[in-house]
Design goal:
Strand order of the largest sheet: 25-27-23-35-32-33-34-44
Radius of gyration: 33 Å
Shape: globular
Structural class: alpha+beta
């Protein structure tokens, strides 16, 4: 500055210059701060003692002034990029203008050909699609598991995706996660396995986890987002628990006698001997138990070696880290002119406002955080039964808006502010970080890990109950709120948690105007008005109330759901009280917050209830007043419209209020009889044991060999029908199914469907060739013809073919089907069918011996002479197979007129016949291939024929390959499952409890076609005596017609139901005589020399041995006494235990349907063996057992045997894989082939000549190929069963009386497996069968609406068990030295019998309920239908507010 100054102005000039420099520096600093904070920084959690709130989130609550955000530019000023950049398995990928609607799963599978990522439900409910997402965070790079089926492709800019292929492979080497899962026998069908591996890999490689290992409990909890339908979960959890802190830091010491890798499992010095053989102990003993050759820990020196304490990191991580840390976000915009959609990614709040201002008036806009809502809203928007996601034109990605990512904590005001784009799990972490530590001294409400005096702690705990790990990793809390705002019936747990916490929300509109709203006001905001104003949520603020003196905050939330984890709430609610606790008197409540969800139409604040509790003592009087006020609040709010029992929901809500008020008391002030109402139940860490006696030789048969396919299943390299590699010309089909029933199909309007981009054609019944027949599965039509009756919702009407799977599914849902009224109301339940006498006349009810009529002795006479006789009724519902891979088929035309079809089927030969029949071609013109299937359980015998036949029809018509891959919702609507049964019984018995006569009148729900259900009826009728001698027996059966999809075989079809009823009868006899159930059971056991109800005389019965062994191993009598003492204790008024032991005698009958063929060939150059067989590998280990048998019979190493795919052109006329006998008969066919080959090679076998040298010496004119066939004789020696399987299970449960929730403490099984072909595989089958039974008896409810629509569809409403539902302790013991002279190689079946003894869950539950009912003053027999879901359990306990007692 050239300024004229006086001499004495020099000092002033210096001061001015310094001031200017300071101002300039401040401007530079503030500019840098603003840029780094609001334009480019990732999540920031400020740990300083005092942190100011983010500038753009401040609002003046005192004066309610709105601040404005200055807009420096318009939408047109933004420089948009159209290039998406991401990392995929270590390689950089750049995509120009990707499709805004494309999901990551389709990009991975279809565009990149990475088929290891599976599709199981496409709604985030099963975990099969899990991938690892790496992104930047304040703590560095964060690895999280996410559902690729929900995540948009465009949302991954600047992030890295790792699929199963990027984790490990057979050629490059398995990762630790893959290796340990393989060695723990953690795979069966293997379809879900990649999802499990990637989920665990994400945990192991997550930020901040290097050198810090999770606990076993944390691992158990983390694995809540994956479903496995095969294994029963225990081997998966066991494998992954080896990554826990205790396993890593305290490895098992090497045995002093171990000299390295064990040459034979039998020579391991570390195995623990028990009376019945080798004991694979708890997880702590995993590395020492070598009886299963597949359970040693990885990186050990052998089965006795120690574990590694290092989790190796992917070497590509350095490259990945460099990409993520150097990434700079820039505005993105992608457009698709075909589907008219736009993706926009602003990088600041100002840009977001500009985007909203530009699009909000002309387009349907969705803000995208995790996009997890698409898995839920399709069940809320009225689009059923197709259940399609909401449609939007513009998607706005908020994941790079810094103002919506920031988190800060003000230590002075104790206020936490969190941005709206924060995923739920990250919000949980921040809340836990700033929550006060739980007091060490008991103050009444801080039991367990949750501090009920901390709003932060309670809020975080409730948020962990939302969905599953993968969903919480991606889904934002604000997105959850928006789903609630749009669909008020959504039972949002975020709403419950934040409203209970009195959170406030900061909002911003398109004009940049800032405002705020508390959660109480948010509940009443109109979605339409909110969107019309261009409003967005930018952040939330929660304040942790300060504690002072005797005044405390008591906070509590509740959630009761169909399943322990990964389930929406039936009831959710929250309470916050400000309480002054008194030493000798009732606490005084000065403030109350009561939030109720699930019970009303919409979550609301119960103001009347709050009013009566505020400024009142928490006493019996206030409880009474609060319950009365609650009644009025609920009446005003209106009843929930969700499916389920409203009486149950209301009762649970009353109980939750009662519990919350009890928590206001210090724990030491509560009487002993009330403690069970407030003490939390903490699930013990999962453990399992397996006990068996290995064979004494080293031959492969009988050894616990891991599944041959396990490595490629763990790496995602196993190819399933849905993974079939197809050409670029391949088209995609989607089935059009009916949305109504009991009406006439009069026509179609395809206009909307044909308008979908990419649609090629639509085929109906009239497109079936003239010489073809519109029939699959014994006369059931492929497509319902126009003019015919539509029998059920879900009946196939047509198939849409398009260029993409998404287009085909979209178009199928848009087909307008025209129906004609018939004046008939649908019959949708079994009880309706019985009342309306909607019966099938073939087979005639009660007339066909062995099918609808079973008689033994003289039941009429015996009933009359019985000491006592009682009557009763029981019912058991249906069950959906929930195979992980839905029905799928890929069809193509080769060589001009040959139709090749790859499909997941249990009966390739029958699929071949069906397809040829529909097309009107010779069967040799159809080739069916089934490499493996992602689960089946009976559901892929006949119910997949419509998909495979439709795909073949489309391929023939269009001359191009066509793939049809059912969406989960479509599959459930079309496929149905297990039959529902109802029985009326009359039983006569002696004074000692012997059953002298039993009569059943059985009704079976067959659906709208009876052919499949006849098989289940036959089995149920012939197996109904279970383990008991019933000398005088009569059963008549009637098959009922309902307007629901045809029922079909499902694991132990009919037998699960009929054996359940017989066990109910036994329990009823015990109850009537006041005898122990186990006494009546054992007194009625069938023994050698006695005849079954079929007239077959029993021999070689091991039931008594099984029973005695289990009674001893489980310490049954000791535990029973302990449970009875627990139930009688005054301290356990609201918590009850139950213990039950249940047996099974399961007949194995071999009929003509078990035809099996095997072809094997020896390669002369190296002596290796290839084997093809006619069976279907569906997870049961058939390939492994066949390979073991071949290796043993030929005398070659197992490693030299390879099993190839099953194809109908290789082996013709084969039977079905099912009924538990598939592996056995296929093994016998393989042995027959080996015998033929061995006889041929006999002249060339010489001492000292090994196999390879011997094969090389065989002349060229001697065939090294052999073929084996086995078709067992039906009814050998005139008997229906070849042999019997005997087993029993003890289960102990604990029941929460007030809510109906239950925990399975332990289950122990003793199983007569004969001489097991493979103990590792067989134990896996036993555990898996038990868990499928658990689902049937407790959680899986199939429910239809009055119009015939399936209400329990998709993973939103249908709940198979998860890893959190299985017994905390599971033990399986194979009975020792039980060679089965009537079985293959001395073995017995394992697939279906475990399903029967799963009824021990049900009967243990009944004991607990009986104890609760006794407390209510009601004794004796009671009815409890199956499945005994949480609502039925709670209602059966007779919970009444009149029994609620307060300390004062």
């Amino acid at each position: 500055l050239n300024l004229k100054m006086k001499d004495n102005d020099d000092e002033i000039m210096l001061i001015v210059a310094l001031a200017l420099l300071i101002i300039a520096g401040a401007v530079v600093y503030l500019t840098k701060y603003f840029v780094s904070t609001y334009l480019s920084s990732p999540n920031v959690v400020n740990d300083e003692e005092e942190t100011s709130l983010p500038l753009l989130q401040i609002f003046d609550s005192q004066y309610s002034k709105h601040l404005s955000l200055k807009r420096d530019f318009n939408f047109s000023d933004i420089k948009w990029s159209n290039v998406l950049t991401l990392f995929l398995n270590g390689e950089k990928v750049e995509l120009v203008n990707p499709d805004p609607k494309s999901l990551l799963s389709f990009f991975i599978r279809d565009e990149k050909g990475l088929k290891g990522t599976k599709l199981g439900c496409e709604e985030g409910g099963c975990g099969a699609c899990t991938v690892v997402l790496a992104k930047n965070s304040s703590d560095g790079i964060l690895n999280i598991s996410v559902n690729s089926c929900l995540r948009p492709l465009c949302a991954n800019d600047g992030m890295a995706i790792t699929t199963i292929e990027g984790i490990g492979s057979v050629r490059a080497g398995l990762s630790e996660e893959q290796s340990r899962l393989v060695k723990a026998n953690g795979t069966q069908c293997g379809y879900c396995t990649p999802g499990w591996v990637t989920n665990m890999y994400a945990l192991n490689t997550s930020s901040g986890n290097e050198g810090i290992y999770p606990t076993k409990r944390e691992i158990d909890t983390y694995l809540d987002g994956n479903i496995c339908r095969c294994t029963g979960y225990k081997p998966i959890v066991k494998a992954f628990q080896t990554f826990s802190h205790s396993e890593i830091t305290s490895p098992t010491p090497v045995a002093s006698s171990c000299a390295g890798a064990c040459a034979s499992p039998n020579k391991c010095p570390k195995k623990t001997k028990e009376a019945n053989g080798c004991h694979l102990g708890d997880i702590e003993e995993l590395s020492t138990g070598c009886c299963s050759g597949a359970t040693e820990l990885p990186n050990s020196t052998g089965c006795c070696g120690s574990t590694t304490n290092v989790i190796p990191l992917d070497p590509r991580n350095k490259k990945l880290k460099q990409f993520i840390t150097s990434f700079t976000a820039r505005p993105l915009m992608f457009r698709n002119p075909v589907n008219h959609t736009t993706w926009v990614r602003p990088i600041g709040l100002q840009q977001l406002c500009a985007v909203l201002s530009h699009f909000s008036q002309t387009s349907n806009v969705q803000l995208v955080g995790g996009n997890t809502s698409i898995g839920v809203t399709k069940y809320l928007n009225g689009s059923g039964p197709y259940n399609t996601a909401d449609a939007y034109d513009v998607f706005v990605d908020i994941n790079h808006v810094p103002e919506m990512l920031l988190s800060s904590f003000n230590a002075v005001t104790r206020t936490l502010t969190v941005g709206a784009a924060t995923p739920i799990n990250e919000l949980v972490a921040v809340l836990q970080k700033y929550a006060p530590q739980t007091p060490k001294t008991p103050t009444g409400c801080n039991s367990g890990e949750v501090n009920h005096h901390s709003v932060f702690s309670v809020t975080a705990h409730h948020l962990t109950k939302i969905a599953n790990t993968q969903v919480r990793n991606a889904g934002t809390w604000a997105g959850n709120l928006m789903v609630f705002m749009r669909y008020s019936k959504f039972p949002s747990d975020v709403v419950i948690a934040l409203t209970t916490a009195n959170a406030r929300l900061a909002l911003c509109n398109a004009a940049g105007e800032m405002s705020s709203v508390d959660m109480a006001s948010f509940l009443g905001i109109s979605y339409e008005n909110f969107i019309a104003q261009g409003q967005v949520i930018t952040s939330l603020s929660i304040t942790e109330p300060a504690l002072s003196g005797s005044s405390v905050v008591v906070a509590e939330t509740f959630k009761v759901a169909q399943r322990t984890a990964n389930a929406h709430a039936h009831v959710n609610c929250g309470f916050q009280f400000s309480v002054a606790q008194q030493k000798q008197s009732a606490p005084f409540c000065s403030y109350a917050r009561v939030v109720i969800g699930g019970v009303p139409k919409k979550t609301f604040i119960a103001t009347r209830t709050e009013s009566v509790l505020s400024n009142a003592f928490i006493s019996s009087t206030s409880l009474k007043n609060a319950l009365a006020a609650l009644e009025l609040d609920l009446a005003e709010a209106g009843e929930s419209q969700a499916i389920g029992n409203q009486s149950f929901r209301k009762s649970v809500m009353q109980a939750c209020l009662y519990r919350a008020l009890l928590k206001c008391y210090p724990v030491l002030q509560l009487p002993q009889n009330l403690l069970s109402a407030v003490q939390p139940w903490v699930k013990p860490v999962s453990r399992s044991t397996e006990v068996f006696l290995p064979p004494t030789d080293d031959k492969p048969v009988g050894q616990p060999v891991r599944k041959l396919e396990a490595p490629i299943q763990a790496t995602g390299e196993a190819v399933y029908p849905s993974d079939e590699v197809v050409s670029a010309q391949t088209l995609h089909g989607a089935m059009v199914f009916s949305t109504r029933c009991a009406v006439t199909l009069t026509g179609f309007d395809f206009t909307a469907a044909l308008a979908v981009g990419g649609v090629v054609s639509i085929f109906t019944a009239q497109d079936i060739p003239a010489n073809g027949i519109n029939s699959v599965a014994d006369g059931y039509p492929l497509f319902v013809p126009v003019g015919d009756n539509v029998p059920c919702v879900g009946a196939a009407l047509a198939v849409v073919v398009a260029s993409t799977e998404v287009a085909a599914n979209t178009a199928a849902s848009l087909v307008t089907v025209i129906y004609g009224e018939t004046g008939k109301l649908p019959v949708v339940t079994l009880s309706q069918a019985i009342v309306k006498e909607s019966f099938y006349h073939s087979p005639p009810p009660g007339k066909i011996p062995g099918v609808t009529l079973m008689r033994a002795g003289n039941p009429e006479k015996a009933l009359k002479s019985s000491y006592r006789r009682v009557t009763g009724q029981a019912s058991a519902g249906g069950q959906y197979h929930f195979y992980m891979e839905t029905q799928v088929a890929v069809a193509s035309v080769v060589d001009g007129d040959v139709i090749n079809v790859t499909c997941g089927t249990q009966w390739p030969a029958y699929s071949q016949t069906s397809i040829a029949t529909v097309l009107g071609v010779q069967q040799n013109k159809v080739l069916v291939k089934c490499p493996r299937a992602g689960g089946a359980f009976g559901g892929k015998i006949t119910r997949g024929l419509s998909v495979s036949s439709a795909a073949a029809l489309c391929a023939m018509k269009l001359g191009k390959p066509v793939r049809i891959f059912n969406l989960r919702t479509a599959d459930m609507n079309m496929q149905s499952g297990r039959e529902g049964w109802q029985v009326n019984y009359e039983v006569g018995f002696s004074e000692e409890g012997l059953i002298t006569a039993l009569k059943y009148d059985v009704y079976v729900d067959a659906g709208c076609a009876s052919d499949d259900a006849i098989g289940g009826l036959y089995m149920g009728m012939n197996w109904a005596d279970n383990a008991y001698f019933l000398p005088n027996y009569l059963a008549t059966a009637t098959m009922c017609y309902t307007n629901t999809p045809p029922r079909t075989s499902m694991r132990a079809p009919g037998v699960v139901q009929s054996c359940l009823f017989t066990e109910m009868v036994v329990e009823r006899v015990a109850t009537e005589l006041n005898l122990p159930v186990e006494t009546v059971q054992s007194r009625n056991f069938i023994t050698d020399g006695e005849a079954t109800i079929c007239g077959q005389v029993i021999t070689d019965c091991t039931l008594g041995t099984v029973w005695d062994t289990l009674m001893g191993r489980s310490r049954y009598q000791e535990r029973l006494a302990a449970s009875q003492l627990f139930n009688s204790s005054n301290q356990n008024l609201w918590r009850k235990k139950g213990l039950a032991i249940c047996p099974v005698k399961y007949g194995m009958g071999w009929g003509g349907g078990y035809n099996a063929g095997v072809k094997l060939g020896v390669l002369a150059s190296d002596g290796t063996v290839t084997v093809s067989h006619s069976g279907a590998e569906i997870g049961q280990g058939m390939n492994t057992k066949v390979a073991q048998a071949v290796a043993a019979a030929l005398g070659v190493p197992l490693s030299t045997v390879r099993i190839t795919s099953n194809t109908t052109d290789n082996i013709a006329n084969a039977g079905c894989t099912g009924g538990s006998g598939g592996s056995e008969v296929t093994v016998q066919a393989a042995l027959n082939a080996c015998e033929e080959l061995n006889n041929r090679l006999m002249p060339y076998r010489k001492d000292g000549l090994n196999w390879q040298a011997m094969i090389a010496s065989v002349p060229c004119d001697v065939s090294l190929n052999a073929e084996g066939w086995f078709s067992p004789v039906e009814n050998p020696n005139g008997q229906p069963f070849q042999y019997f399987v005997y087993a029993a299970c003890v289960t102990e449960v604990e029941l929460d009386v007030l809510s109906g929730e239950m925990h399975i403490l332990a289950s122990e099984i003793v199983y007569d497996c004969g001489q097991s072909l493979n103990p590792a595989v067989d134990i896996g089958q036993i555990e898996g069968g038990l868990m499928m039974g658990l689902g049937y008896f407790l959680t899986e409810k199939m429910e239809y609406g009055d119009d015939g629509s399936l209400l329990s569809t998709g993973t939103w409403e249908y709940k198979p068990p998860t890893a959190q539902d299985v017994p905390s302790l599971l033990s399986v013991t194979l009975l020792r030295n039980q060679f089965n002279k009537d079985g293959i190689l001395g073995s017995k079946a394992v697939g279906e019998p475990p399903n029967i003894i799963a009824n021990s869950f049900y009967f243990a539950l009944r004991m607990a309920i009986a104890a609760a009912r006794a407390d209510a003053g009601v004794l004796g027999h009671f009815s409890l239908d199956v499945p005994a879901t949480v609502d039925l359990r709670q209602q059966a306990c007779l919970v009444s507010p009149s029994r609620f007692v307060m300390p004062n």
